[in-house]
Amino acid sequence: MMKVAKKYAVELDHNGLPKDVLMQMPLWYHIGADPSKVQRNRSVTAKCLQNNHKIFTVHEAIQLLQRLEEEEHYPANFCRCQQCAHDKDHLGCRDPHRCITTVAERLSQLKSRWDPTKLEDNGLSIEDVDLEKGDICFSPYPEHLHLLSSFRVFTNKKWETHSEVAPQNAENQSQPVQEHRETTVWCGGYSQDPQTTTAKAGGAVWYGSNLAQN
Ligand SMILES: [Zn+2]
Ligand SMILES: [Zn+2]
């Protein structure tokens, strides 16, 4: 699947992604992380965050980070505040404070346009929209309200669409004519059971009704 995605230049459309989508981005192997900084995605602490704390998205990371603001939390491995005690006794984490500071480090590695906390907030959220009350939902990127809708295929602009056209008379039969023309193709994708071992995904392209290329 990854090979196919690479072949057809599947990319995340990252132009002006709203806060909601930035929050849904995966914390690990984040494409917006500063490449000059070392990303430890498989360290002992990273594994604790993934396997015990279930931290996978930027949103989940920011939520965990809020513990640093809690008065009862003491910034050391022996903290037994309510949440650290829960992590130690029920999740199997040996050092919750270290896990939290690791999350803080990971978030600080994000380039500013990928960091939802640095995005200018207009105070609006899609959750506040109530269409039944007459609210009108407008967004310059309406299709970007979910991360899964933000991927684009055929993003390599060097590609050109062309097709061979059959020669029209006997004189040029030996030299097929190359005609450049635009084709509009609709793409659709679907995923099932994401973030599980039974995850499946598929996609399809549609050129038009009753066409063999579909
Ligand atoms: Zn604590
Ligand atoms: Zn931990």
Describe this structure in words.
- The protein has helices at residues 2-7, 19-24, 44-51, 58-65, 82-91, 96-108, and strands at residues 11-12, 151-152, 162-165, 177-180, 186-192, 200-206.
- The longest helix has 13 residues, at 96-108.
- The strands form 3 sheets. It has a two-stranded antiparallel sheet. It has a two-stranded antiparallel sheet with strand order 3-4. A two-stranded antiparallel sheet has the order 5-6.
- α3 crosses α6 (96-108) and α4 crosses α6.
- It has 6 helices and 6 strands.
- The structure holds zinc ion (2 copies).
- The site of one zinc ion has 6 residues, from α5.
In short:
The chain is of the alpha+beta class and 214 residues long. It has 6 helices and 6 strands, in the order αβαααααβββββ.
Observed structural traits:
214 residues, alpha+beta, 2 domains, two-stranded antiparallel ribbon, 6 helices, 6 strands, 24% helix, 12% strand, elongated, binds zinc ion
Runs in which pLDDT lies below 50 for 5 or more consecutive residues are 162-167
The residue fraction in helices comes out at: 10-25%
| 3D shape | elongated
Structural class: alpha+beta
Ligand inventory:
zinc ion
Tell me the number of helical segments per DSSP (H or I, 4 or more residues long). 6
- Percentage of β-strand residues: 5-15%
How many domains?
2
Strand order of the largest sheet: 1-2
> How far is the N terminus from the C terminus?
19 Å
